[in-house]
Known about the structure:
single chain; Jelly Rolls; six-stranded antiparallel β-sheet; eight-stranded antiparallel β-sheet; mainly beta; 11% helix; globular
Amino acid sequence: MKTTACVLAAFASIATVQRATAPAATAQIPGFIGKPVDPPPMHVPDGFTPIFNGKDLTGWHVSKTNHHGITPDYHVTHGLVLATQRPLGSGGILLTDKKYRNVEVYMEVKPDWGCDSGLFLRSDEAGDAYQVTMDYLPGGTIGGMYGEGLNGVNGQNNRPGSQPTAAQRASQGQRGSQPQVPPSQRLDERPDPNLPWVKAWKRETWNQVRARIEGDVPHIQAWINDQQVLDFTDTANHAAGGITEGPIAIQIHGGPDRWVPGGFWRWRVIAVKELR
């Protein structure tokens, strides 16, 4: 009987706490306007299949071996993926569970100025991949090509219709090398308006980004708002371990100089079209 009495007392205590913490009936709040609404519908182009469902991160996981960090903050709210460093200075990548070979990726993105991301194609678990740069900060490039952790890839400055010579590859500096004054301290700077990606980019609103990878020796193209900004063919397959398929990943760059406190990257659509 004593045990039964204790159990009943415990249930009574829980019920009291629930009553105390239950939200007030909104109908009794004068002028209440906080009614929940559904997020805007997701726009997915014909022929593409969404790999972000607008509700949670099912089908995705955070890398636990990425050198930018292993505790990035990726979460879903208002039908969007929001991402930032966590803690400040520590980034990372969010990978698809599925591997892709020849694929076109479509995204709708809205980053804060001063925040560095990237779209990884044929990645491995650690984030070694062909990267379409999403460096939205002073000195950065949206739609460049970079070999993240890959030897022999250096196509950051490719433009449609151009291929780098061996001399150009050798002369191009490594992405991420820091100027004397880091980007996070030069936020008043604006990118060169004559750059193709800057001409295509729309500030302070949503932008459409498409990237395509095809072939055992990768041919990679990218478009911003339907304007081509990248057309790159590698000289060989430099993917990690010679892979010809791998996860897609979205990045939060680590380090204090390529992110701003309180800054976020946002994705409201991520979809793919698998190619033959």
